[in-house]
Amino acid sequence: MFATKILRQQVGAFSKLPHANEVKMAYDLHQPSVSLQTNINNENHKSEPILFIHGIFGNKKSYAQDCKLIADATHTPVYTLDLRNHGETSHAAPFNYDVLTADIKAFCDEHSFDKVKLVGYSLGAKASMLTALKYPDLVRSAVFIDNAPINQPHLKGFMKSYIKSMKYILDESRIHKNDKQWKEKANDDMKKFLPNGNLRKNLLVNLVNKPPKNSEESTVNFDTDYIQFLNPIHEMEHMIIEEVATWPDTKGLKYEGETHFIRGLKSPFITKQGVAAIMDHFPNADITDLNSNHDILDDRPGEYVRIICDFFNLHRYQNPPKDANIVNYSGYGFQQPTNGSTVAAN
């Protein structure tokens, strides 16, 4: 009886989201302030933009300033994308890495990109990895931030804490949308589930007290007296807990291009097993360790941006010259890292 009740709840949640094998991804484009002067580089970068893929409950606005820095320092257009059920992209089921990859591929096809460079964080890292493995001819090179191509059942508790904190706001706190302190109250209520301030901050970006501009396309009911999340939290609950920590069958798939992984030394996302899987699927990968938890993008913003820019500038050509120019970052508003170390994973 109890199992049947759970099944009905899950089926009911799925039924509220329309089914779509592919969705059109919302995006922002960050153009570099200065383009490269050499013809060969200009031609390469017109057709090889950087796609920046956010983590769970992130969106294309989350790290917009960082992406502008990356665009300027690499002289490369940077597209920040909203995954399905995030930001301004449509709400749809299913929600797994195969469909996220299909959405990314469809985005590239829509924009006629022959080659792209990928940057993915957390959930976005796995989606980007699978894109590189499934469509190696599409991907020039990639940076993957704090995730690995393996099943990670130990992370389900992490996902449950996210969901519990957000459901508590919707179902228990029920903060009135006209309350002048609605965001502060929501932050306080989430502390019992998520003591990490950076994680709460990233979730609170999705909390609103008025309908967004594309609310007519959302499955969320904004016609209430209470604050709401932009994401369909109740409908996504089962999918988030069961899918985000998984990894599809990629046995035998390899991406031979240049890749760089950024690992948080205090994060549980890249284990020894994860490193082995990385080298199995990405034999030309390097790994940089940073003294950080999983929230690297907030905890070490200057370091991760510098690593990304160094990597793409070094590999601007398929066979970079020995005297490849590395950008002087002092003019871009961020510092060289002081506590990170780079290790060759191979």
From TrEMBL:
Residues 49-301 form the AB hydrolase-1 domain. Keywords: Hydrolase, Transferase. Transmembrane segments: none annotated. It comes from the Eukaryota. One of its GO terms (molecular function) is carboxylic ester hydrolase activity. SUPFAM superfamilies: alpha/beta-Hydrolases (SSF53474). The keyword Hydrolase applies. Gene3D superfamilies: alpha/beta hydrolase (3.40.50.1820). Belongs to the AB hydrolase superfamily. This is AB hydrolase-1 domain-containing protein. It comes from Wickerhamomyces pijperi (Yeast). The lineage of its organism: Eukaryota, Fungi, Dikarya, Ascomycota, Saccharomycotina.
